[in-house]
# Entry
Amino acid sequence: MAQPPTPSLADGVADAIGFVGGALAGFWLGQWLGFDIFAPGYGNKTLFGIALVGLGGGLGLHAARRWQTSRRRKASND
# Structure
């Protein structure tokens, strides 16, 4: 049985870039839609904006991990 690849610095950097990029995309989408996460209090618009940031970060991380997996498959096929 083949050993699973150990995490490398490139994997960590790709995860971080995916998460931060996705969170920023969620933040700017929320700003564009009028959901200010820095508004005083915790109203519905603020909470929805925070949820968009979290969702964006999760989707960005998922996309980065899919990219890493496809890179590994491509390298093992060559």
Summary: The mean pLDDT is 90. The radius of gyration is 17 Å. The chain has two helices and no strands.
